[in-house]
Amino acid sequence: MEVIDEGYKILAYIDDLEDIYRVAGKRGLSEALLKNINALRQDITELEPVLSAENAYGYFDAEVGGKIDGLVEDCRQGDEESISNMVDEIQECVTASRIRLGLGKARSLI
User: Fold this and answer.
1) Which one of 1, 36, 68, 86 is separated from 14 by 20 to 30 angstroms, measured CA to CA?
2) How far apart are CA 70 and CA 89, in angstroms?
3) Is the dihedral of CA 104, 15, 74, 42 positive or negative?
4) H or E, element range at 46
5) What distance lies between CA 74 and its chain's CA centroid?
6) pTM (2 decimals)?
7) What does the mean pLDDT of the chain come to?
8) Do residues 81 and 33 touch, judged by C-beta distance below 8 A?
């Protein structure tokens, strides 16, 4: 099994969310859900430099990694309610990380 650098995992999650957004749009899922998926992707993108600076990839990966994998599967199945619930759950983790690490740090590093 290939080991992926933690920093690249976060970038892979961002790519996964772009794919989820695209697939959800093709499936005709609600505009509100698409907006939430895009906001989640933007928040993780904004957090990435702080995760790097604080060497906090492991914690973030443990909190979010499996959930994004679950979101990919939910999207493949097209269950809007499951997708929405998972997006909300991931967003809660991202919000907690933003608070814990300090969003101001992310903006200064971008």
Assistant:
1) 1
2) 11
3) positive
4) helix 31-53
5) 14
6) 0.84
7) 86
8) no
Residue 61 to residues 8, 27, 40, 88, 97: CA-CA distances in angstroms? 11, 28, 15, 17, 11
Tokens of 106: 């992310």
Torsion of CA 71, 82, 56, 10, to 10 degrees: 20
Radius of gyration of the chain measured on its C-alpha atoms? 14
| Closest to 9 measured CA to CA, from 50, 61, 47 | 61
Each residue's pLDDT tens digit, 50-103:
887 777 888 888 889 899 999 999 998 888 999 999 999 999 999 888 888 876
2 close to 53: Cβ distance less than 8 angstroms: no
